[in-house]
Write a structure and sequence with these properties.
214 residues; alpha/beta; Rossmann fold; 8-stranded mixed beta sheet; 8 strands; 23% strand; globular; binds S-adenosylmethionine
C-alpha cells in the first residue's frame, strides 16, 4: 500500500465532484465489461467495493434486488447518493467500508469492483479476496488496472506514486487460493483487465459434509 486508506479517501474526496468527467476510453471499456459480466438476476444482492460515485452500482441496480456500495470516501459516495436519488433508485445504498472490512454481513450473490483494488498492496489484495470469498458470493467480477505482461515504464496506465497494480497471475493465484475459479479474463489494455471469478463447484462438491460424521 503506497498510501493509507485515509490518504486515498482525502484524495478522492477532493476530486469527487469532477470524477465522472475524467474518464479514459479504457476505464469505460472496463466498466462496461464489469457491468456485462456481473449480470445480476432480479433477486440478487450485489456488493460493489470501492464503489466511488456509483458507476457500477447504479448501472446494476435496475436489474438487481439490492445493491450495496462500499467506499472510504464520503465525497465520492455523496455523488453516488445524489445520482441514486435523481434516478429514483431506491434499492441502492452507500456506506463506509473497505475491501478487507466491508462492514456488511448480509447475503451477497455478486461482488463487483472496478478500478479500485489497485490501491491495495498485493498482500492486502490477497486478504481482501479471502474476505470476499468468506461472504460466499456466487461470482466476483473485478475490473482494474492489472499487468498482462511487463508494463511499459514509458506509458504507465497508473500513478506509480499512489497505485499498486498486481499482475494477472498474482490475482489469479489469489482467487484460486480463496476457492474461486477464474471463468473469464478480459484484456482491455496491457495494463487494464476484467477477471470473472466464480465459486468453484468442484471445491464445493469436495468439501466434507459437516453432517456426515466423517
Ligand atoms: C478510481 S475510483 C473507482 C470508483 C468506481 N468503482 C468506478 O468504477 O468509477 C477508486 C475508489 O476506490 C476507493 N478506495 C480506495 N481504497 C479503498 C479501500 N481500501 N476500500 C474501499 N474503497 C477504497 C476510493 O475512495 C475511490 O472511490
Amino acid at each position: 500500500m503506497k498510501k493509507s486508506p485515509e490518504e486515498h479517501a482525502a484524495r478522492f474526496d477532493e476530486k469527487a465532484s469532477e470524477y465522472d468527467e475524467s474518464k479514459s476510453d479504457e476505464y469505460r471499456a472496463c466498466a462496461n465489461l464489469v457491468i456485462e459480466h456481473a449480470a445480476p438476476d432480479a433477486e440478487d444482492v450485489v456488493l460493489d467495493l470501492g464503489t466511488g460515485t456509483g458507476a457500477i452500482a447504479l448501472a446494476l441496480a435496475p436489474d438487481a434486488e439490492r445493491v450495496v456500495g462500499r467506499d472510504i470516501s464520503e465525497g465520492m459516495m455523496d455523488e453516488a447518493r445524489a445520482k441514486a436519488q435523481q434516478e429514483g433508485l431506491e434499492n441502492a445504498a452507500f456506506d463506509r467500508g473497505t475491501f478487507r472490512e466491508p462492514e456488511y454481513d448480509g447475503p451477497v450473490d455478486v461482488v463487483t469492483s472496478n478500478f479500485a483494488m489497485h490501491h491495495l498492496s498485493d498482500e492486502e489484495k490477497r486478504e481482501a479476496i479471502e474476505v470476499i470469498a468468506g461472504l460466499e458470493p456466487r461470482k466476483f467480477v473485478l475490473g482494474d488496472v492489472m499487468f498482462f505482461g511487463e508494463p511499459d515504464p514509458e506509458a504507465p496506465f497508473y500513478s506509480p506514486d499512489v497505485d499498486d497494480p498486481a499482475t494477472v497471475g498474482t490475482l489469479a493465484d489469489a482467487f484460486t487460493s480463496a476457492g474461486f475459479s477464474l471463468t473469464a479474463v478480459e484484456r482491455v489494455h496491457d495494463q487494464v483487465g476484467v477477471l470473472v471469478a466464480e465459486r468453484s463447484p468442484v471445491a464445493e462438491a469436495e468439501a466434507p459434509d459437516p453432517d456426515s460424521g466423517e
